[in-house]
C-alpha cells in the first residue's frame, strides 16, 4: 500500500496528490522504519534465539535506541498532523486552495521531523545494554545510561498522552463537523463520500496509537516502581500495538475507500489482467501460428 500511494503521488494522481496522502505516505514510511528498529530492539530479543549475541555485544551504539524513540515521536506528531488535516478540510469544505493546504502541511511536516531530533543525539555517547527481567525470562535491550532511558520513557509517555488527548478532541470535533455537513446540504454529498473513509481510517489509527501509548505508560510506571513482571508484559504488548499501528491503517483504507481499492488492485494486478485479456482476444491468425 505504501509503494502504491508513493507511486500515485509521484504520478500526480489527482486523488492522491493531496496533503493528506503525502502526510500518510511519510507516516507509513516512518512506521516501516520504526518497525525494523523495534524488531531489532524488542522482537528478536523476545524470540530468545539471539540472547547470546545480544548479551555479548558491548559496543552497539545507543543512537539505535534513540532512533527508535525519534521515530516513535515522529509517528505521534504525524498522527496529529493527519487529524489536523482532516479538521482543516472539514472546517472549510468549500475551499479549493491546495496551495495553502500544502503550505500548512509543509510546516507541520517540518515540525514533525525536526522537533524530536534531539532524541537521536542524546544517547550518541552511550552504548546499548542487555539484561534480563521477569526472573531471567525476558531479555531487554536499551540504552546503557539509565537516566537517558528514563528520560525517553518520561518524554515519550508525556508526549503520547498529550497527542492522544489532542487527537481524541480533534477527532470528536471532526465527527461533529462531518455530521453537520451531512445535514446541511446535498452539495457536499460527493465530497462526504471521500471524507468518510479517510476520517474513519484516521480515527482507527488514533485508537491504535492509544494502545501503543498505553503500553508506553505502563512501561514507564513499571520501570519507576521496579515492577519486573509488568515491565515484561509491556515488552510483549509492544509488538501487538506496533502491528496495529503499522499494519491496520492500509487495511482499513483498502476496505473503506472504493476508489483507492480499485486503483490499488489495478496498480498491482492491472498489467497481468490486461495481458490476460489481450491473450484471450488474440487474432485467429496468431493462434493458428502457434500450432504450425
Q: From N to C, what is the helix and strand string?
A: HHHHHHEEHHHHH
The biggest beta sheet, please? Answer: 2 strands, antiparallel
Helix content: over 70%
Kindly report the average pLDDT value: 77
Helix count, DSSP H or I runs of 4 or more residues: 11
Shape category: globular
What does this structure look like?
The chain crosses the membrane at residues 20-42, 62-84, 105-124, 151-177, 198-221, 233-255. Keywords: Membrane, Transmembrane, Transmembrane helix. Pfam families: 7TM_GPCR_Srv. This is Serpentine Receptor, class T. The chain has a single domain (1-265), classed as Up-down Bundle (Rhopdopsin 7-helix transmembrane proteins), CATH 1.20.1070.10. The protein has 292 residues and is mainly alpha-helical. Mean pLDDT is 77; it is low at 281-292. A hairpin with a 4-residue loop joins strand 1 (128-133) and strand 2. It starts with a helix and ends with a helix. Strands 1-2 form a two-stranded antiparallel ribbon. Helix 9 (228-256) packs across helix 10. It is built from eleven helices and two strands.
Characteristics of this structure?
292 residues; 11 helices; Rhopdopsin 7-helix transmembrane proteins; disordered C terminus; mainly alpha; two-stranded antiparallel ribbon
Could you give a quick summary of the protein structure above?
The chain crosses the membrane at residues 20-42, 62-84, 105-124, 151-177, 198-221, 233-255. The chain is mainly alpha-helical. It has helices at residues 2-10, 19-47, 51-56, 63-91, 98-114, 118-121, 146-184, 189-224, 228-256, 258-280, 284-289, and strands at residues 128-133, 138-143.
Amino acid at each position: 500500500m505504501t509503494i502504491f500511494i508513493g507511486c500515485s503521488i509521484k504520478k500526480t494522481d489527482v486523488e492522491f496528490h493531496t496533503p493528506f496522502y503525502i502526510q500518510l505516505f511519510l507516516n507509513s514510511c516512518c512506521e516501516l522504519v520504526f518497525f525494523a528498529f523495534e524488531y531489532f530492539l524488542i522482537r528478536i530479543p523476545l524470540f530468545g534465539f539471539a540472547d547470546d549475541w545480544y548479551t555479548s555485544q558491548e559496543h552497539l551504539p545507543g543512537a539505535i535506541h534513540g532512533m527508535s524513540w525519534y521515530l516513535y515521536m515522529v509517528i505521534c506528531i504525524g498522527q496529529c498532523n493527519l487529524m489536523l488535516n482532516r479538521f482543516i478540510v472539514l472546517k472549510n469544505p468549500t475551499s479549493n486552495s491546495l496551495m495553502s493546504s500544502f503550505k500548512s502541511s509543509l510546516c507541520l511536516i517540518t515540525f514533525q521531523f525536526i522537533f524530536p531530533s534531539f532524541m537521536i543525539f542524546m544517547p550518541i555517547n552511550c552504548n546499548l545494554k542487555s539484561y534480563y527481567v521477569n526472573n531471567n525470562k525476558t531479555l531487554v535491550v536499551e540504552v546503557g545510561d539509565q537516566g537517558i532511558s528514563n528520560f525517553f520513557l518520561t518524554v515519550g509517555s508525556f508526549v503520547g498522552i498529550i497527542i492522544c488527548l489532542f487527537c481524541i478532541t480533534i477527532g470528536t470535533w471532526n465527527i461533529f463537523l462531518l455530521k453537520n455537513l451531512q445535514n446541511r446540504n446535498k452539495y457536499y454529498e460527493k465530497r462526504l463520500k471521500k471524507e468518510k473513509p479517510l476520517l474513519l481510517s484516521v480515527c482507527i489509527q488514533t485508537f491504535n496509537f492509544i494502545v501503543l501509548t498505553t503500553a508506553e505508560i505502563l512501561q514507564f510506571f513499571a520501570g519507576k516502581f521496579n515492577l519486573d513482571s509488568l515491565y515484561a508484559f509491556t515488552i510483549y504488548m509492544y509488538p501487538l500495538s506496533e502491528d496495529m499501528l503499522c499494519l491496520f491503517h492500509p487495511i482499513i483504507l483498502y476496505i473503506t475507500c472504493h476508489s483507492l481499492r480499485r486503483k490499488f488492485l489495478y496498480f498491482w494486478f492491472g498489467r497481468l489482467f490486461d495481458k490476460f485479456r489481450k491473450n484471450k482476444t488474440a487474432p485467429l491468425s496468431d493462434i493458428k501460428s502457434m500450432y504450425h
